[in-house]
Amino acid sequence: MKNVKAQQRDKLIMELGVLIQPFSELLESKDLPNIGRYRVACAKIQSGDAAWRKTARELATFANDIFMNAEFQKIAHVNEGFLREVGGYINEAEKTSDLAELKTRCNEAFDNLKKSFYELLEHIPVEWEPEIFPANTPFTSYLRIKETLSTVKTRIHYFDRYLKVEFFYLFLKDVSRGIEVRLVTTQGNSQYGVNGVTYVSELVRKEFKNYQLIEVTPHDIHDRNLRVDDQIFSLGPGIDRAGMALTNFGPSDSSINAHKELDVIMSKGNVIHQS
Questions:
Q1: Which of 64, 73, 225, 237 is the most exposed place for a label (fewest CB within 10 A)?
Q2: For residue range 93-129, what is the model confidence (pLDDT) as tens digits?
C-alpha cells in the first residue's frame, strides 16, 4: 500500500528547501551581502512560489470533493508573508545602510518561516499505512522510511540488535542536531551492534545535543522498531537491508503501553555513549 500523503508531504518539504535555497545561501555566507543580492534572492523565491503552491494543493486534496482549504491557504502563504516581511527590512536598510542589522532581521524571519511552515504542515493529517517493499528495491525502501523522519519534532529512537553504521549515514545526516536520539542495540561484533558502530557513535555524540547509544542483551530486543515522536514503526530486516529482499514496514502499536515497553528496554540497558 502506498503512503500517498506521506510522499506528498515529503515532496512539499523538499521543494520548499529548493525554493528558499537562494536566501538560505545568502544568510549562511560569512560576509554581509549587499541589498541587491537580497532582492535577487527574494525574486527567485517569488518566481517559483506558484509552482510550489500546486504541490501544497495536492497535499491538501483528499478527494474531488474533499479539500482542506483553510489549511492550504495558511501553508500556501508562508512564502508570501516572509517576502513581505524581509521586503520591509530591505527597504529600511536602503535608508540606514546597516547591513549587519539587515542580516540579523532576515535570519530571524527565515527561522520563523521554517518554524511556521512545519507547524502548519501538522494540520494536514498523514495516516501511515503498512507497506511491503518488493525485493531489489533498496532505494525506494530508503525513501519510504526517510519519509517517516521528514517532520520529526522531538525524538528518534531505533531498536535493532544488529545496528550498523549505515543507519548513521542514511538517516541521521540530515536530522536536526537538537533532536533526541536513542539507538538501542546489542554488544555485537566488529560488523554490528555497539562494537560495530563505536567509532561513528563517538563522533555523533559530540555533535548531537541529546544522544545515547544504549547496549542491551539479545534477550531484550528481537523485532526492529523505529519510534518517531509518538509513532512507532516496525521493520522486518535492519534499515540498512530494507528492500534487499521482501520487506515489511509500517505503523505498529503506538499505545501508551507500547511506549512503556520500549522505555523499559532502554532503562534496562547500559548507556555506552551520550552527549
A1: 64
A2: 999 999 999 999 999 999 999 999 988 998 998 877 7
